[in-house]
Structure formats: C-alpha cells, structure tokens
Amino acid sequence: MFRIAICDDEYAFCSQMETIILENQNVFTEELEINVFYSGERLASFIQNEHDFDLIFLDIEMEGLNGLELGRKIREEMDNQTIQIVYVSGQKRYYKDLFDVRPMHFLSKPLETDKLIKDIKLAMKLNGCFSGVFSYQKAGQMHKLPIKDIIYFQSVNREIKIVTTTGTKLFYGKLREVKAQVEGHHFMQIHKSYLVNYEHVSTFKYDQTKMSNADCLPISQAKRKAIRALQMRYEVERMEG
C-alpha cells in the first residue's frame, strides 16, 4: 500500500488532484491510499498521531500553517526524513526557500497530469530504495530513520542511543526489541550493549571493531566466535549480490 496525502486549502484543487490520481491508478505498481487535508494543522496533527505517508503533495500558500512551515516541522520537529514531499504552487519564487526541507519535486499550478503521475512513480521508486526504515517512539511521536544511515545502537541504562551518519538520537527501549526490528539488515550484536550495522564496519580486530565514524567498539569474548561466523556469512551474501 502506497500512502499519499494531499494538503491544500483549495477544495477544488484537492478534488482535481485526487480524481487524476484515481483515474490513472492502473499505471502504478502499488495499490494507493489517498487522504485529503484542507489545512497544514490537520495534516500535522494526523502525522503526530502516529499516521504516516509515503508521499505528500503540499501546497505552499495555505492560511495558518503554510507548506514551508509544515515541511520544516516534518523534517525537524518530527524528525521524519523518509516522507517524500512534493510542493505545489502557482508561484515559482519559493524555489530558494525549499532546500532545507529537501522536497522531491515542485509542481506548478495548474496541474499537468503527466508530471503528477511521473512524480508518484518516482516516489514509489525512491520508497523501494529506502524501504529499510527503523522506527521508534519518543515523547509521543513516531520517528523514522533509514537503516542504511544507522552506524550502531548502544544500550545505556534504560535508553537506546542511535549513532547515525548525521548525529545521535536517544529513546527509551530495549536492545533485544531493536535487534528484532532490524533483523535481516546485516546487524551484529557484538556485545550486550552494542548492535552494529555491518555495512558501517571499517575493520575487525580480535576484540574490537572500528566503525565508519571512527568509533572503536568492544567485541565481548563470549560473542567472538559467533561474530566471525556472521562476518563470513555476510561477506558471502554480499558477493552473491
């Protein structure tokens, strides 16, 4: 299921976009679910209540919480880097203001059907490339991170520290639950407190591993044999493609 949100305070425009998508849904490789919102506040509230989307068509010039503000809220406050955002506007003067939101594209009004369909297909393709996502809850909000960006997890008392290519995150949780969520993504538990992403391992030594960010982490004596076996398995899988 590919989830799309349309957010625009013009009812007629929302109806037009939804109709175009539904009339052309046979050209898409996934089943679509479409939700329409007539204000930025309603969409923000919906996402904050643990609902998620793969793609948002977001009008820039809405009353109240406008599209630029909502985009920044999604990226910064909600820390959601995986939703694809396509901005929609009748004005092109906003281009330079969009960079920090990292939108996938910009659509001009009036709508062009072929460009709309092309954007949905591109978002589906990108969603497939980044389908490996780790999700966690903090302060009542759902956060998502691309697994490929996670270097390692560390258990610190009752918290989990996520070390990524862009920084560090903290949330309350258990390492065994984290391990279950990333199963199948080449993670290794090298120590009771560390779960590392093999794709970010720079070098292995007998008693420690050096990660892509230069952090050196201990390999517990009890896990060394199992880690060597996992290393061999992952290398074989990598060579086999």
Automatic annotation (TrEMBL):
Residues 134-233 form the HTH LytTR-type domain. Keywords: Phosphoprotein. It comes from the Bacteria. Gene3D superfamilies: 3.40.50.2300, LytTr DNA-binding domain. Residues 3-124 form the Response regulatory domain. GO terms for molecular function: DNA binding; phosphorelay response regulator activity. InterPro entries: CheY-like_superfamily, LytR-like, LytTR_DNA-bd_dom, Sig_transdc_resp-reg_receiver. The keyword Repeat does not apply. The modification 4-aspartylphosphate is found at D59. Pfam families: LytTR, Response_reg. PANTHER family: STAGE 0 SPORULATION PROTEIN A HOMOLOG (PTHR37299:SF1), TRANSCRIPTIONAL REGULATOR-RELATED (PTHR37299). May play the central regulatory role in sporulation. It may be an element of the effector pathway responsible for the activation of sporulation genes in response to nutritional stress. Spo0A may act in concert with spo0H (a sigma factor) to control the expression of some genes that are critical to the sporulation process. This is Stage 0 sporulation protein A homolog. It comes from Acetobacterium woodii (strain ATCC 29683 / DSM 1030 / JCM 2381 / KCTC 1655 / WB1). The lineage of its organism: Bacteria, Bacillati, Bacillota, Clostridia, Eubacteriales.
